[in-house]
Amino acid sequence: MPDRPNIIVFFTDQQRWDSCGCYGQSLNITPNLDRMAAEGVLFRNAFTCQPVCGPARACLQSGQYASEVGVYTNGIALPTDGTYVAHHMSEAGYEVGYIGKWHLSSTAIIHPGARPGQDREINTRTQAVPPEFRGGFKDYWLASDTLEFTSHAYD
């Protein structure tokens, strides 16, 4: 297997661009991020096409606008039949993992083939996000749909 770079994407919520030292913050509060930025690639001119968490994450995962992928507001799950960045990276031979806040599952997922009112719904605020709803991240998962509402939803 040829040598390839490790790829780590940090995607944060409600964080100003200048809150890290690598972007000019002088308080030295992000030394590890600053070191990684100095040793890797740092985006100096990046924009989000969505001001809301879930849709912004869906756009990053899918490479599509929120209206195309269908996640145009929080609380809408990323479609399970899509091809996302994790699928492409996995096909290229990378191990793919996700850590942190997913926010791409609806608050109540009904498994494919379930009969409404008869089969169990999964509340991703209190239970782990099922593997088929993880956007192709299959090798490592330490995440929850909405961390602020959960304490034991990691799987």
Relevant terms:
globular; alpha+beta; 155 residues; 4 strands; single chain; two-stranded parallel sheet
Chain-wise SSE layout:
Elements: H1 31-39, H2 53-62, H3 66-69, H4 85-91, E1 97-101, E2 108-110, E3 121-123, E4 140-144
Parallel strand pairs: 1-4
Antiparallel strand pairs: 2-3
Count helical runs: 4
User: How would you sum up the global shape?
Assistant: globular
The strand order across the widest sheet is 1-4
Helix-strand string: HHHHEEEE
Poorly predicted runs are: 150-155
What is the number of independent domains?
Answer: 2
Strand count: 4
State the secondary-structure class. Answer: alpha+beta
* DSSP strand content: 5-15%
Helix content: 10-25%
Using only CA atoms, what is the Rg? Answer: 17 Å
Distance between the termini: 30 Å
Report on the structure:
The structure is a single chain. This protein is of the alpha+beta class and 155 residues long. The protein starts with 30 loop residues before the first helix and ends in an 11-residue tail after the last strand. The longest helix is centred in the middle third of the chain and has 10 residues, at 53-62. It has a two-stranded parallel sheet. The protein is built from four helices and four strands.
